[in-house]
Design brief:
The chain has 227 residues and is of the alpha+beta class. It has 5 helices and 13 strands.
């Protein structure tokens, strides 16, 4: 499958606080044709025996992630806490189950690294893609039942139509599905945890490779004008 000409533009104001590692995955078959292997499903548990390139996420990791989400004025608590903390809570209750191969890969890496990760179907979004703080009164639907999340001040991914994914919940309109063939994986990392984030990104790509899924780089560029 040919690579898509995708560039990820990052607002310059976020360079000092955030590390936004990303790659594209090309699925040889529609995503619905895959089943997550037992070793990956086992990785959804906190006690999983995985060869991780880093230690368990601790309170320092969680504080750094929350500080990143606060950079634009967002309050990451309660139902608006980072997605990685939702995964941790579900795993502690033994309630973190398999969804699809792309999401399971994301959840395993996010759970054990403590870094929020978005997974987006690239054929459901329209470039240019940019990472920026959401404007006031921004929101999107995040699940099939139509629930919305208020995004004001949260660092999120935007496409031509507006916000489409973020470190708390991704937009329903951009999520992977049974027919997905190409996806974007985006790590929402604090700059102060750059080494851990780079290790998580490398591990994430290696897990894709072990499953025979080709991954490719994204180009990065300066923020696009918003007016």
């Amino acid at each position: 499958m040919p690579a898509l000409p995708v560039t990820l533009h990052v607002d310059p104001s976020l360079i000092e606080v955030g590390w936004f590692g990303a790659f594209v995955a090309h699925w040889p078959k529609p995503l619905g044709d895959y089943a997550s292997p037992p070793w990956l499903r086992a990785g959804l548990r906190l006690d999983a025996e995985l060869e991780r390139p880093f230690g368990p996420a601790d309170d320092g990791v969680r504080k750094a992630v929350r500080d990143l989400l606060r950079c634009g004025g967002f309050k990451p608590s309660g139902r608006s806490k980072p997605a990685s903390e939702f995964l941790l809570g579900a795993a502690q209750r033994d309630e973190l189950g398999s969804i699809n191969l792309a999401v399971d890969l994301c959840n395993v890496v996010s759970l054990h690294s403590g870094i929020p990760i978005s997974v987006v179907d690239l054929e459901l979004v329209t470039p240019p893609l940019r990472v920026a703080v959401a404007a006031a009164e921004s929101s999107y639907v995040f699940n099939p039942s139509g629930q919305t999340i208020k995004l004001d001040g949260l660092v999120v991914l935007h496409d031509q139509a507006g916000p489409c994914a973020g470190p708390v919940k991704d937009s329903q309109r951009s999520k992977t599905h049974a027919g997905t063939r190409v996806s974007l994986q985006l790590l929402w990392g604090p700059r102060e945890l750059m080494t851990r984030c780079e290790q998580a990104l490398g591990w994430y790509r290696r897990l894709h490779a072990e499953l025979g899924v080709e991954t490719g780089e994204l180009e990065t560029g300066p923020a696009m004008p918003t007016g």
